[in-house]
Inverse folding.
């Protein structure tokens, strides 16, 4: 069993591989996807492709950039404009999609190396494949947005991607679940299960921005399920979530 | 994020939400100031510099804070202070009652008046709030890497809206990071009200067995978050 965490793209990225015979090179291959994505898409470095693109200093863009921009545009249209990588100043900021995209690419890299039992967790967004070290299905817990010590739901994704969007920072002072005056329709956490982590991540981001309507959007989206927690500590779940509950 | 399904109440909801944020963070800061040993000596306790932003104002200048909103303060029934108290003369002293954060509907007026005695005095003479002079006039203390106080970073774009981060420094170290202004401006054209809404199963969240392999959670790591955070920390250094 190999497992390692590094901070890349400002996120803790954890790669764990449980296949017999997995090597440090396999872990390295997964991390390489993130470091390359960071170098290409970071807005913090003037020489990244994204920064050059935003300065109109590129003639032709990479296949990776094109793929991400296409995905972003697709998500923008699908979400009715709630997801948009174009900032008010006109610059492109694809951070909202690059994380899920990089996790998916890293998972593909591991599969191409013949690995089957692994997970990749980047900042709480997870792609798991195969089985865990005990030979059982991977179990993914949804963290309580009001109490980081607690898990409030346990999922068995069985190869699906799991992404959570929300704002845990607010829960601490204002949106106490025991405070009855909290606005109850305020959503603090939306966990989306999708066909893969890229799909789950982009719809988690877009649908969280929709507020209480987000989970209804997911309900109508084939192949997706969701678990939503509001400021009052109440949860709603889509009708097909049961098949993922552990 | 909450008012999507209820357009008529959206503005009011936002204002109430802002008020709740303001009061609760203010009360929290007072509470912290009382409990923190370094801040226990009232004259030097840092005044909570609240971030009072217009809910939909993507104004990139944090100093623009609450002046426009403050004009509305006199219209609020100020005396209806929850938990007693932030507006009465006696209690506007450094010996604050230990109020719990509360999201009372009247809280915007209370929190703002408590924080902006100058504006209140000019607009609402009947209510005299002595400025907590000892705290406002207190020199900035430097006990660590950052100067004590509350710093609000400039609003920055976080893909789905503007985000703004507030950092609290006590004893020279970061004691709290909040998002007083969180993305909820981008309201576009999803016609959710036209849909036949399904009935979704509901439950009250409860702790489950912690026997999991991995944990999914939200991360606030957007560019906007980091930008605003960096800006707030830069202020704390200067």
């Amino acid at each position: 069993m190999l497992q390692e965490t590094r901070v890349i793209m400002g996120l803790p990225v954890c790669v764990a591989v449980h296949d017999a015979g997995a090597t440090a090179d396999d872990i390295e291959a997964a991390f390489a996807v993130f470091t390359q994505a960071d170098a290409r898409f970071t807005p913090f470095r003037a020489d990244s492709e994204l920064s050059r693109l935003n300065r109109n200093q590129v003639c032709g863009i990479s296949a990776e950039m094109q793929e991400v921009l296409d995905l972003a545009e697709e998500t923008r249209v699908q979400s009715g404009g709630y997801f948009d990588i174009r900032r008010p100043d006109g610059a492109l900021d694809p951070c909202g999609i690059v994380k899920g995209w990089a996790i998916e690419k890293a998972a593909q890299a591991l599969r191409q190396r013949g690995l089957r039992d692994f997970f990749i967790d980047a900042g709480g967004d997870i792609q798991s494949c195969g089985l865990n070290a005990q030979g059982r299905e991977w179990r993914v817990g949804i963290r309580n947005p009001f109490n980081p010590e607690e898990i409030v739901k346990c999922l068995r994704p069985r190869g699906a991607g799991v992404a959570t969007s929300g704002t845990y920072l607010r829960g601490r002072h204002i949106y106490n679940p025991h405070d009855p005056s909290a606005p109850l329709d305020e959503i603090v956490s939306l966990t989306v299960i999708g066909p893969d982590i890229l799909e789950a991540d982009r719809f988690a981001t877009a649908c969280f921005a929709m507020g209480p309507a987000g989970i209804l959007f997911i309900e109508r989206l084939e192949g997706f399920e969701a678990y939503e927690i509001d400021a009052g500590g109440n949860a709603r779940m889509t009708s097909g979530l049961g098949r993922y509950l552990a | 994020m909450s008012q999507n399904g209820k357009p008529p109440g959206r503005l009011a909801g936002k204002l109430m939400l802002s008020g709740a944020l303001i009061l609760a963070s203010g009360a929290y800061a007072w509470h912290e100031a009382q409990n923190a040993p370094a801040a226990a000596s009232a004259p030097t306790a840092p005044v909570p510099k609240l971030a009072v932003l217009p809910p939909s104002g993507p104004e990139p200048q944090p100093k623009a804070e609450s002046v426009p909103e403050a004009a509305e303060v006199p219209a609020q029934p100020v005396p209806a202070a929850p938990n007693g108290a932030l507006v009465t003369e006696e209690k506007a002293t450094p010996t604050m009652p230990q109020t719990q954060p509360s999201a009372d509907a009247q809280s915007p007026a209370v929190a703002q008046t408590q924080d902006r005695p100058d504006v209140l005095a000019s607009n609402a003479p009947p209510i005299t709030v002595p400025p907590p002079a000892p705290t406002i006039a207190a020199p900035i203390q430097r006990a660590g890497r950052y100067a004590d106080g509350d710093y609000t970073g400039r609003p920055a774009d976080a893909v789905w809206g503007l985000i703004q981060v507030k950092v609290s420094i006590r004893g020279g170290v970061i004691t709290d990071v909040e998002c007083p202004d969180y993305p909820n401006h981008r309201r576009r054209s999803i016609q959710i009200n036209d849909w036949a809404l399904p009935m979704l199963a509901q439950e009250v969240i409860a702790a489950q067995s912690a026997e999991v392999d991995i944990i999914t959670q939200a991360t606030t790591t957007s560019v906007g978050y980091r930008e605003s955070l960096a800006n707030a920390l830069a202020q704390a250094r200067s």
The first strand of chain A starts at residue 2 and ends at 8.
